[in-house]
Each structure stands twice: as C-alpha cells, then as structure tokens.
Specification:
The structure holds 2 protein chains of 2 kinds. By secondary structure, chain A is an alpha+beta fold. Chain A contains 3 helices and 9 strands; from the N terminus they run βαβββαβββαββ. The N and C termini of chain A lie far apart (39 Å). Chain B is an alpha+beta fold. Chain B has helices at 9-15, 32-43, 45-51, and strands at 2-7, 19-23, 55-58, 61-63, 74-78. The chains are: A alpha+beta, B alpha+beta. The interface between A and B is medium-sized, with 24 and 18 residues.
Chain lengths: 151, 84
C-alpha cells in the first residue's frame, strides 16, 4: 500500500455485502452498493459461465455450495479487505444451475483511485476462488458432464 | 463408535451416496485417515482417487488426516474447491 498524499481520510475498508445466492446476480446493484463519495473508482468483476472449456463446448454449469459457504465467504472478505485500500466492497457468489453468460460471482470495489480498486478486486476474487467451499459441475454439449478440479 | 459422513460434489458422485453412518472399531485410535481408507474400500477406486485430493471437516472445523475421531462426530468430505 503506497501513501496517498491526496487523501483527507484513510480508506474505510467497509464490507457492505457478502452473500451466497440462488438467484441471478445484479452487477449494477453491487456497484450501487459500494458507491461512496470518497471513491474515484469502482471496479467490478463478474465471473461468467463461458461456452467452452478445455477445447469442449459447454452448455451450462451447476454450482454447489457447502452449507457453511456464506459464513466462509464473510470470513474471507473480512480478512482480506483490511489488507486493501478499498472504501467499500460487495461480493456475492451464485449457486444452482447457471446458463452460459450468467454471472457466478460478482465482486464490486470502490476506492479513491483505480489502482487500489483493481488491486483489491483482483485479490478478493483470487482468495474467494481459492478458499470458498463451492464446486461446479460443467455440462458439455455432447451430453457429458464433469466436476471441475475433481480427479 | 459411529460417525456420520457427508459427501459433497464430486465426492458424492464417486461415493454414490450423499451421506452415511459408519461404524468404527472402538479399539485403538480412529483417525480421519483410517476412516478414509475404510470409505475407499467400501466404495471403490473412483472414490479412493477423489479422497486423495479432498480436505475434511470434523464437526464443521477443518481437520488434518491425523485428527482422532470421537463417537457421534460429523465428517464432511470436500473435493478441491472450484468457485467463481
């Protein structure tokens, strides 16, 4: 974290939302949730279901969460956000059946400047992907399916 | 003693059941690792392969393979996470 001489206040590092949801995610709602007069940047990441993986055509992904997933998500974000210069953060992971193009995770971060917002957003996405007890089953166009990352 | 095992995602697919109760010999120390060996024998090589990549919760707390089990605990079998 570099010292920002333009600041009047230190970063607030507020967590405004963490959730696991079985409904379609609203990217704009996450951006509004982190809106902050001290922020000059809002960075949003939407992780979406793409139509191919490993050279094969994908038609959808089912996400499954452990019953503790919401608590673990809150814990991860509470741990990571104090290590960033974010003003506010909102994170939701979706579970259930998703079609190609739908959002599986949305992370919105506001910060005084873009570098801080990009860095915090990237860090949060990495930590969540690494530590959240959520799994996905990819369904392929040829009718087969696989649990991703499962041997 | 008896423990309750819950399988998630690919582990559930490989085991063919969502959860089950397993009886363990009361003589000697029973650990997560011993339980996993037993589950592999019970369900076959597909589950054995998946178990090698799994992490475990005992009563919802992360537990290493050497953790000793007590009667009545719940053991969750978690394949590698794949969120996002």
């Amino acid at each position: 974290m570099s010292v920002d001489s333009s600041r009047i206040h230190p970063p607030q590092r507020r967590v405004v939302l963490t959730a696991i949801s079985d409904c379609p995610l609203d990217v704009r709602a996450h951006e509004r949730a982190v809106a902050d007069v001290r922020s000059g940047a809002v960075v949003t990441f939407s992780g979406e279901v793409r139509d191919h993986d490993g050279g094969r055509a994908v038609v959808g992904i089912e996400y499954e969460g452990h019953p503790n997933a919401a608590a673990v998500l809150a814990e991860i974000v509470a741990e990571v956000v104090p290590q960033t210069d974010a003003e506010a953060v909102a994170v939701t992971h979706r579970i259930g059946e998703l079609a190609v193009g739908e959002s599986a995770i949305v992370v919105a971060v506001s910060a005084a400047h873009r570098h801080e917002a990009f860095a915090a957003c990237s860090r949060i996405v990495d930590e969540v992907k690494h530590r959240l007890p959520v799994w996905k089953r990819q369904r392929f166009a040829d009718g087969t399916e696989e649990w991703v990352a499962c041997p | 003693m008896q423990v309750r095992v819950r399988y998630f995602a690919g582990a559930r697919a490989a085991a063919g059941v969502e959860e089950e109760k397993i009886d363990l010999d009361d003589a000697g120390a029973q650990t997560v690792a011993v339980l996993m060996d037993l589950l592999g024998l019970r369900h076959g090589p597909e589950l054995t392969r998946v178990l090698a990549a799994c992490t475990f919760l005992v009563d919802e707390i992360a537990a290493p393979p050497e953790r000793e089990l007590r009667d009545g605990v719940q053991v969750d079998v978690l394949p590698p996470f794949a969120g996002g």
